[in-house]
């Protein structure tokens, strides 16, 4: 029988919802309640999340013990920095005030200067800056692994209020990391899941299959086959987020690889433009085993 994530004990309800400082395409902010309701985890053991992305699921599910990872070293590195205390909300404020002022004075050219600097030094605070000043929260890397998201011009980009919002997001994550036993790693999902033991649970959110891919976001049918094979061979307990269908197509890999598992569906709407007839729906799936 399906049990839901308990609201007390190792997994606590998160009120209000935690918004992560890093944004990424495919972020599951709106799906956290659906994931929380349908993931069949008893709260024992560790929570493994090898496709961490922004971290929004981890930060809102709040397991007591977690192994969080992503093969994008800049994502894992940012949260590792918070864990180790090399990135603090104070440091983020100082950094954003300084760099935000220069951006206001020098405009888009300064964004591209920081982007070049980041592509040679990989400073996690530059990553945050680019993430929050770049186009639509898009994290995109070119074929050589260089960050190539364009600038998103917006008046008062790093206003006082915007900086405070980001600083508060970093502070919330700092406190969660301090209060829980979480580790962050740069790893491919295969390596990350090797460490799983009997009571552990994996929440999996790979890149969208069949969508436009970039350097850290490629996901092929053979990746899907490997993941399904791994879960079945090991008898891993898991919840896997996949898109199920939209107006035009259905994700046929679900039937091919996960037909024997419970499939929970959730429809949500998004706007492509300003008018009601540009409203599109997407059905998301959570596969549990
Ligand atoms: C759909 S996003 C995850 C979004 C995340 N759940 C959130 O709500 O923000 C997929 C993530 O998987 C990572 N990724 C892609 N391929 C990977 C692989 N082979 N191993 C580990 N992580 C991978 C990407 O860097 C990206 O951060």
UniProtKB/TrEMBL annotation:
Name used for this protein in its record: site-specific DNA-methyltransferase (adenine-specific)
Family annotation (PANTHER family): DNA ADENINE METHYLASE
Catalytic reaction(s) noted: a 2'-deoxyadenosine in DNA + S-adenosyl-L-methionine = an N(6)-methyl-2'-deoxyadenosine in DNA + S-adenosyl-L-homocysteine + H(+)
GO molecular function: S-adenosyl-L-methionine binding; sequence-specific DNA binding; site-specific DNA-methyltransferase (adenine-specific) activity
InterPro entries: Ade_MeTrfase_dom_2 (IPR023095), DNA_methylase_N6_adenine_CS (IPR002052), M_m6A_EcoRV (IPR012263), MeTrfase_D12 (IPR012327), SAM-dependent_MTases_sf (IPR029063)
Pfam families for the chain: MethyltransfD12 (PF02086)
GO terms, biological process: DNA restriction-modification system; methylation; mismatch repair
Enzyme class: transferase
SUPFAM superfamilies attached to this UniProt entry: S-adenosyl-L-methionine-dependent methyltransferases
Keyword Nucleotidyltransferase found: no
Alphabetized UniProt keyword annotations: Methyltransferase, S-adenosyl-L-methionine, Transferase
Gene3D superfamilies membership: Adenine-specific Methyltransferase, Domain 2, Vaccinia Virus protein VP39
PROSITE patterns the UniProt entry points to: N6_MTASE
Keyword Cell division among record annotations: no
Organism of derivation: Cenarchaeum symbiosum (strain A)
EC number(s) reported in the record: 2.1.1.72
Domain of life: Archaea
Family membership noted in the UniProt record: Belongs to the N(4)/N(6)-methyltransferase family.
């Amino acid at each position: 029988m399906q049990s839901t994530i308990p609201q007390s004990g190792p997994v606590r309800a998160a009120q209000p919802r935690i918004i992560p400082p890093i944004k990424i395409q495919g972020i599951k902010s709106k799906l956290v309640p659906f994931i929380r309701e349908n993931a069949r985890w008893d709260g024992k053991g560790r929570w493994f999340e090898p496709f961490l992305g922004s971290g929004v699921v981890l930060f809102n599910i709040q397991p007591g013990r977690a192994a969080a990872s992503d093969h994008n070293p800049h994502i894992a590195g940012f949260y590792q920095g918070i864990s180790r205390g090399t990135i603090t909300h104070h440091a983020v404020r100082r950094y954003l005030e300084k760099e935000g002022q220069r951006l206001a004075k020098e405009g888009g050219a300064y964004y591209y200067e920081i982007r070049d600097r980041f592509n040679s030094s990989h400073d996690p605070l530059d990553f945050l800056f680019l993430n929050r000043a770049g186009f639509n929260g898009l994290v995109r890397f070119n074929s050589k692994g260089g960050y190539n998201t364009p600038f998103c011009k917006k008046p008062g980009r790093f206003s006082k209020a915007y900086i405070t919002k980001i600083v508060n997001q970093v502070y919330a994550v700092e406190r969660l990391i301090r209060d829980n036993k979480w580790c962050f790693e740069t790893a491919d999902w295969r390596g990350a899941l090797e460490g799983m033991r009997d009571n552990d649970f994996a929440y999996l959110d790979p890149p969208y299959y069949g969508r436009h891919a970039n350097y850290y976001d490629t996901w092929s049918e053979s990746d899907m086959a490997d993941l399904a094979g791994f879960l079945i061979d090991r008898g891993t307990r898991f919840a896997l987020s996949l898109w199920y269908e939209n107006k035009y197509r259905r994700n046929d890999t679900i039937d091919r690889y996960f037909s024997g598992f419970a499939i929970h569906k959730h429809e949500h709407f998004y706007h492509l433009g300003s008018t009601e007839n540009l409203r599109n729906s997407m059905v998301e799936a959570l596969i549990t085993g």
